[in-house]
Amino acid sequence: MSIRVGILGYGNLGKGVEKAVGVAEDMDLVGVFTRRDPANVSIDSGAKAYHVDALEGMKDDIDVLVICGGSATDLPEMTPKYAAMFNVIDSFDTHANIPVHFTNVDNAAKAAGKIGIISCGWDPGMFSLNRLYATSVLPGGEAYTFWGKGVSQGHSDAIRRIEGVVDARQYTVPVPEALDAVRSGSNPELTTRQKHTRVCYVVVEDGADKAKIEQEIVTMPNYFADYDTTVNFISAEEMKRDHSGLPHGGSVIYTGTTADGQNTHVIEYSLKLDSNPEFTGSVLVAYARAAYRMNQAGDAGAKTVFDVAPALLSPLSGEEMRAHLL
Amino acid sequence: MSIRVGILGYGNLGKGVEKAVGVAEDMDLVGVFTRRDPANVSIDSGAKAYHVDALEGMKDDIDVLVICGGSATDLPEMTPKYAAMFNVIDSFDTHANIPVHFTNVDNAAKAAGKIGIISCGWDPGMFSLNRLYATSVLPGGEAYTFWGKGVSQGHSDAIRRIEGVVDARQYTVPVPEALDAVRSGSNPELTTRQKHTRVCYVVVEDGADKAKIEQEIVTMPNYFADYDTTVNFISAEEMKRDHSGLPHGGSVIYTGTTADGQNTHVIEYSLKLDSNPEFTGSVLVAYARAAYRMNQAGDAGAKTVFDVAPALLSPLSGEEMRAHLL
After folding, report:
1. Which of A191, A255, B172, B183 has the fewest C-beta atoms lying within 10 Å of its C-beta?
2. In whole angstroms, what is the distance from residue B230 CA to residue A203 CA?
3. ipTM metric
4. Phi/psi of residue A157, nearest 5 degrees
5. How much of chain A, in percent, has pLDDT values that exceed 90?
6. pTM listed for this prediction
7. For residue B186, which residues of chain A lie inside 8 Å, CB to CB?
């Protein structure tokens, strides 16, 4: 029997989840749920589009609901709401608010006897797992996380809000010297500026004051002021030709020692992703499988990637995993 | 209350486990158990040495027994035997025999209500986990495992058995061009010879026939014949000065696609270890913590790293993990 999956939200991430469900042999896509008029939403795979309000009447038709919303306002409301009806999974990534979000989802999911896996994807997600495995094996070491080279949608949006800007793409780029220093095992202290640079491609209106826009970008607090930032003004055609993908990636590098510091060990996990939303969607779908199985086994409440035994992510049997992957 | 750990076997791996227990704040080392006369075994940490026969009388004194024996003859007998008395963990790595070993440990552990985690370390172990996570997230991709640069004890031993050889150290070295091809995402087909080379350092008896020894090494079936092998004859002093460590490491590189092959994603996990037995011992100790906790929660039977939720490896609370590692 296939796992019946619903997708709530049909932006880049929702489309990534749709593609991943499409290649999961043990899953069926029940439909995509949207706040827009479903008549105006064309679903790539041909699955049915529903208005989000239809969800409440479909409690028996969906085994796991994958919630693809923004962490700022959507997920804090949606994930607890739907955890009261379905096994759910989200990619909540506002770090400071994870404890509150976890509690809210936990309460709703426990009351309903459902599983809610939060903060799933690659960071938080696969990167978090690697930080946990490394520090569990080698306590007392140091974890360094580098992001990029890749497009930061939050930073791109921040530039787009500047007057005179038509479009923008911001790449986060790790500093090679910082990566080398960390990989050497020397445990360097690195400032924000020493770890990453920010490279921006900006399309402006005709006659816009480029010098002023550049100044506004590089001095923007929180987003750019603490980084070495490069601004490149390009045409709309160049933007479309050279920057329409959403690549990303990065590395978690952990250095720890044994034998009273005499022996150093370097653990590195890195991702090089052609499409950030498609990879994130693929992670969500693997954890959707786990959410369903944990619930079938009688478990309920909020979970993170830390709580999920890896075997639950795979459609393979225990025997197959031990024979081919161990 | 601390987890009470016993170590069975006191070679390089047992000493690595001892060091890792020493830095685990939630564990106490009850003692080291050996087939030798314990009066002649000096334990680095000052823990007590016991004869292995003492184990049967200490069922209530040990929460987890870490079994540090060889996969060829020790572990197939020891792990099921002691799984009938204790929660146990081993590093069994004879791949073809894992199904039988798993079944034997499972039967013994279930009958005793204990947990037995088998095949723990870095390969099998952390590398296996990365193969499983990657293929679960991106089904249909290709996993490439490279080992080294590092000392292979099995290959070093094989050289030592040749007549006229006094000592030998064999390094397994991944071929840089193969690594580059895999990292590019091009999914190359690679033969054994294309993936790794073998570099040997050999000390011979005075007057030994070096040409004959070299020929015996490079043509040795299973061990060397399928590889490009380099043999360097060195003095006993050079061996001691330059090759007394046991470094190792390697990479699991997984390439998979989304969107019908349009987007490629590369996942790489790599280890660079100053001491293979100390790192392996550290992994065993983290999983010893998990074995104890799974058993406390009422679970029993044989497990592998695939069955262990990552949170069980860490002494941190769920709140701490979510705040600092997620």
Report:
1. A191
2. 57
3. 0.96
4. -60, -40
5. 97
6. 0.96
7. none
